[in-house]
Amino acid sequence: MKIAATALSHVDYLVAVALFLTGAWILLTSGNLVKKVIGLNIMETSVFAFIVTTGMIDGGAPPLVAPGDPGPFASPLPHALVLTGIVVAVSVTSLALVLILRVRAEFGSVELDEIALSLAAGDTAEQSERHGSADD
Amino acid sequence: MIEWSHWLPILAMLPLVGGALTPLLFRHRPAAACFWAVSVASVTSVVAIALLLRLVDSGGFSYAVGGWLPQYGIELRMDEVGAFAVPASLLVLLSLVFSRHYVARAVDASRVSFYYALVLINLGGLNGFLVTGDLFNLFVFMEIFSVSAYALVATAREPIASLAALKYLLLGAASSLLVLFSVGVVFAMTGTLNLEDAAAALALSSPMPAGLALAGLATGFAVKAALFPVHFWLPDAHAAAPAPVSAVLSALVVKAGIVGVLRTLELFGGAESLLQPLLHLVVWLGALGALGGALMALVQRDIKLMLAYSTVANIGYIFIGLGLATASAVSGAMVHAVNHAVIKSALFLAAGAMIHRTGLRNIDDLRGLGRRMPVTAFGMAFTLIALSGAPPMAGFTGKWQIALGALQAGHPSLVAVLVIAGIVVLAFGIRVINALYFRPPARVAVASATEAPASMWLPVLMLTIASLALGLAGTPMLEFVGPAAQSIYGTLP
Amino acid sequence: MTPELVDIRPLLAVLVSLACAGAVFAVRHRARWRAFWSLAAAGIKFALVWSMLPGALAGRVYVYQFGELLPGVAFGFRVDALGLFFALVSSTLWVLTTIYALGYMRGSHSLHRFFGFFALCISTTVGIAFAENLLTLFVFYELLTICTYPLIMHNEDLAARRAARKYLVYTLFGGGLILAGMVLLHSVTGTLSLAETGILDASVGDHWLLAIFLLLIAGFGVKAALMPLHAWLPAAMVAPTPVSALLHAVAVVKAGVFGILRTIYNVFGIDLLRDLGYADWLAMLAGVIMVVASVQALRQKEIKARLAWSTISQLSYIVLAAALLTPLAALAAIIHIANQAFSKITLFFVAGAIERGTGRKRVDELAGVGRLMPWTMAAFTLASLSFIGVPLMAGFVTKWYLSLGALDAGAGIYVAVMVISGLLNAAYWLPMIHQAFFKPLPSEPGNDLRNRPRVSSMMIGPILVCAAYVILLGAGASAPSMPFSLAEAAARFAFELEVPLE
Hints:
The structure holds three protein chains of three kinds. By secondary structure, chain A is mostly helical. Chain A contains five helices and no strands.
């Protein structure tokens, strides 16, 4: 009963952790490069959500401080962090997508196993080309 | 009277701004872009050296950005760890000089100005990362050098480069998230982002969330530093990148991960009960990395892959030193971070010069090149021996100190690990030397090759000389980092 | 306390050959200049090292320090009696070997590389001899490994590559052991100095002492070709003869033996080792090697292979003498560095001259060679008599003091071992001499040796000088200001004796 109550009072953290793990799972296990990037984005979202909630104070007002306003306010710093984090995340995602486009242009696929196949084919071609030059 | 601390932001901002301007100013003039980048890096190096002299002269100092004092404002500070900005700036400078002719062949012409921009931005991120005094800027600068590094790997022409860059990006971004998450936890616990204030608060805090933050930071930075077993992104990325980029990545970007670990240790220096198990784990992961990296290097045929695996091994040494947590081991590890940076960039640049002249990157194909490219081949042979840790070259100081630390900490088996890894490194070094000097050329491209232009062999030669000079300067370097090692860990035996 | 003088000569002695190597690389294919620089540097070094002899005999110690390589470990030179003795032997033999090599190597490929690395090897050897501490010694020891590698590799064929690889695997492994031993030593004592008679003491703890002893002795034992770490040595015979001479008489094996002597006399010290009893085991091992290697030598059909196994056997004389831990045996150990070097280098020079003059490499092909090359074979005879232990020859002096030392130590069994080894020596040298002088030349059609190419006088000269030295070291050993008195000083220092040994 007590555990359930604790869990409920920290439901925001639990959601963040669940999202993080989901994203990590996709990032690590999916063979599709685009899906990996989506997994990364889910992870990012979870971290941002977590950080924003840490700045929250029960009953706190948005931190728009006017003279004579007594507070309490939510902490403004996490918002600044998350804002920067979002900017970084957008740039990383766009770079990743550009790279995926290049990978697709060069290997004709965004599936890792298919790329591995075409890489292996390239290797054998190269090896037969330099046949006989290696020894020792 | 100059106020020295004003120069601190320049260290980071100059390359960042200079980098951002490069494509705007020199979009279609690659030669001018190179000249510009070299100038910016030179000025940055001068600033870094001036700051180092001031640090040696009268101790660490800090700078409050915009005049806001710490806890609210952003603090930059110069300490012994931040002094890594000097080798960082100088190595980037040499890599840029080297790039002048290299990128003409290795990078698409339309991307050349962006290439220089990215290298400068990378340097700015590194320098900022080294001198920042608060956790959030640590994250921001880390992202700056990381994202520019992902993009730099992709500038190479080879098809594999984009894939390697993407793998590097996915893992790197995930590790960055771990760091950001931990920064959030630390902020939630302590209410501050300033490193020193947070460290003081964490020393008194409860173990559970602090342990979470420590694990997140340590894992995140360990991925950046390519500690075994999260090293697997490194060999592909470092081998696929253009050679000067490989040099910067292996010499500096992974070292930034080490610096991150040092900052983490600083942050949790007061929470000894949390730190001990982590340090213990790091020692053995480092040992596995040192042996595994060296053995993997031994079986590579591609010279750049071989060098990349050797980076994994050397990162292993450094982590052994950091984990042992004795005065000699930690200062040895810190010195080794610098020495390895010099040696490894010499090696990558030499390999790049060879690839540039012959188009070949397989060790067996490079046979007989020693007579065609005497300076480059000499640089490579010399630094390979330095890499193995033969005294009195630069690789020796750190390993000796780490071995002494291992004995002090009661782990004699680690001495065996260090010695065996050193011998394995020498074994693959000899393999390359054999191919270069004692075998007849097997390829037409080698038989008709000539020495690389001076813009390539000169940086190689300078780094080669440095790899001897730094070895002879082992004692002053150890004395320089000694106090920092003590203050990071609290007190060391 | 011995007076220490700061003197630049130890540094110069090392730098001369280094500069010579640089000059040889720089002149590349100009043969005259190459010969000039090699000979000039050899001569200067010879003069420099010998000029330190009177001072050393008067009890002075020359030092030169550069500053610290690591905290508490300086990089510096210190010329004590033992080091100077080794340096004297190697710088003298460098002059002779250089002259010989100029004759022998004429017409070979990559000569600038050969002579460059040749000079580097001697530079590092003198560095080993003059090293002030174990780390400095190790630096030069590893450099020596690296510098001999291109020399073994000189022919660049498959056999040379295999031999060179074997050599590297063994010596690098040995280097690793030494490094580990050094780290242990430094962590328990905080110093690596070689200036004292023992830096360890019993308070360190038995298992640490044993570990350090095993690591250092095994590490140096690789280069000293201590069985079972010897396999690289016979394989390295594929190298050109001057290199074999350098490896077996001067630089490499002696560097290993010198390291063992330093370990016994300067790292552990006589008293500690006597208490620990490790040296008895080492002596026993050396005694076994002495006989086994001689038997192996007897079975070899190729001249150079026989010489290689003989070297393994002779080196164990030195190890045995050092391990007996008595003053007279120590004298034998040190003096045998010179005796074995001069005798063995004579044999190698002769083997090379026979190969150049007649193309013969095998023991059973020697018939009649004595008539074709009487001077050369006379030198061969002298040197082999020295190994057998005939009085008035250098080898006899060693055996005499070694026997006295063994009796002092109460280990008479080793005198018997030495007699057996001497008989075996006779069994493999005398038939060669007999064949060369008393068998007629085989008259094979199409292989007329009477019209053979003339052997250069640059090869014959050094052979005769070396042979003369073998007699000088034997008959005139105790003449004043001979190296013998230096060896005596070194032995006295190790045992902290004030009075002469006899």
